[in-house]
């Protein structure tokens, strides 16, 4: 829609008065600001020598959490893949291996394309068993596109790394998330 | 006229014998139900369809003091049904003369919530890992009619799963809500009665009898019937979430019943077939041969690209190389000896495809013979229900036909239009060696049918062109081998054993290098433009009187019965 003439407001550049035309007062005004900053607390961070401390809700690289047995916590429900607006999660589900007593279904493969991801955190939000979380790892680099496609093992290794380093403790504190994440009641 | 009032809305039921659920459906009101199924007997065990029932007499409504199961309560002239959705009723319809103290819909609504709370007491609520999630009635109704949390404080009754009840079906016992649809299906439709309810009350479970697993040709239907995720198909288990799949209305091609089916596809892959309700074709169910029979389309030995024999070697070729020489070869043979040219049109072709091929071959010369391809017949018609000894019991509720092809009658109708009679394949198969050219347009998902029809004493004609899905004795002898497409990779019309014409759309794309039969016929005819089955359908309708209704812009979903002459 073109802009109507009555919506346009014409503004004239203000004319400099005598004070402005003298030039020096305005220079002094600017310098005051500069000099005042020299005596304030420094805000510059010496990255990469000093790494920033990020809040726990920072949305960086994903990880797949492990349960008490060290198995991947994910139950392959596809909720994250369904919620993902960038369609970067690809899961192939399968019946859980023999011996995994707490569930019937597990992800045979779980692949996230970290290049496609927009780090919105919807997957984390959608997960009914708190299996996928975004960590505070922000400096993700790779030499090829293939390196940026994270499979299940790599996502689990992110969990191992971040929990070991203590940067991202397991955030799952919810007592009951639903039977899918809980062991069946002992008889 | 007998009138029933559903949430105050008068509905004329005519002479039909209906229950409250059906009468409400006529009025456009959905009464939720689990155990009721129109094809099965009524047990009224789930209590989900509880409604308030009364009678309108002399302008005064008398309501019964308690809620009644709608599926078990017949309606008559003057019946009044009030459902839990009374508050959502059409406000333009004036309210009936209820007793001033009576609050319509309150009891029914309360009953629905209470019933759901009861059903969910022991349900594990493992929707994230349940294959039914997304098309689950328990999920839908809990969302619509239930309460958001459980008041149950004790631990749930979680009986172990029974993956061993069948080779194709698994039972998640804890998800079951005991609607017994599956039990009634095996007793009433298949008649095999493998399933039963064991134990009592709170501890009831679905189970099979020891040593008698759920193995019958209709067993797959119990998975469709199950309103929750208790019965799962092992073929489909954990392969796909239902909300990713697109549901295409198809027609099963594996026998001449021509069951209406749902083809569930995602990213050009068929994940499962389900029966689509169609009283004209097959009713509510389908057989396991059809249900699990779609795997042939992804078989490794399927012919995926055109091949040409050069000397003794067979090499893959591109379409733009094959088609001109193929066309020239056929036309040269027709010019030399038109009587020696035979085109075989298989009963797996759609009406549109058969019509275009017939147009092409009859266009070459009137003397070119059109032959109906081998019609695979295996055993006898398999009728259900059966008794314990496996003998069919009247009345028949489902038939698996012995004729294992979808469109014999459609192709026959086309052949009769073009040459007045239908020549069976056996007539030309024996003398094939003396023919100038044989073009075999197949598309047989079971290669045994072709092998059996060809026989051992087969001698190849001078020019043999074969289009088929799988390598057979025919393709081995052929100069040109062309890929074919499966029924869900094309759109068209099939005419079933009873003359019911069903038009269906394409569900998936054929393999990359394959071309549809319709496209090949277009190429042979030298036609230009987009290949659209709908356009050909209009031509067929114009040319063949029996198919006149196909000209309608949108073919009816249920199909239409044709007046076809039998031979």
UniProtKB/TrEMBL annotation, chain A:
Binds 2 [4Fe-4S] clusters per subunit. Residues 62-94, 108-137 form the 4Fe-4S ferredoxin-type domain. [4Fe-4S] cluster 2 binds at residues 84, 117, 120, 123. The keyword Metal-binding applies. One of its GO terms (cellular component) is plasma membrane. NDH-1 is composed of 14 different subunits. Subunits NuoA, H, J, K, L, M, N constitute the membrane sector of the complex. This is NADH-quinone oxidoreductase subunit I. The gene is nuoI.
UniProtKB/TrEMBL annotation, chain B:
Belongs to the complex I 75 kDa subunit family. Signal peptide: none annotated. GO terms for biological process: ATP synthesis coupled electron transport. Residues 107-146 form the 4Fe-4S His(Cys)3-ligated-type domain. SMART domains: Molybdop_Fe4S4, NADH-G_4Fe-4S_3. SUPFAM superfamilies: 2Fe-2S ferredoxin-like, 4Fe-4S ferredoxins, Formate dehydrogenase/DMSO reductase, domains 1-3. One of its GO terms (molecular function) is NADH dehydrogenase (ubiquinone) activity. One of its GO terms (cellular component) is membrane. Keywords: 4Fe-4S, Iron, Iron-sulfur, Metal-binding, NAD, Translocase, Ubiquinone. Pfam families: Fer2_4 (PF13510), Fer4_Nqo3 (PF22117), Molybdop_Fe4S4 (PF04879), Molybdopterin (PF00384), NADH-G_4Fe-4S_3 (PF10588). It comes from the Bacteria. InterPro entries: 2Fe-2S_ferredoxin-like_sf, 2Fe-2S_ferredoxin-type, Mopterin_OxRdtase, Mopterin_OxRdtase_4Fe-4S_dom, NADH_UbQ_OxRdtase_75kDa_su_CS, NADH_UbQ_OxRdtase_ferredoxin, NADH_UbQ_OxRdtase_Gsu_4Fe4S-bd, Prok_molybdopt-oxidoreductase. Residues 245-301 form the 4Fe-4S Mo/W bis-MGD-type domain. This is NADH-ubiquinone oxidoreductase chain G. It comes from Fimbriiglobus ruber.
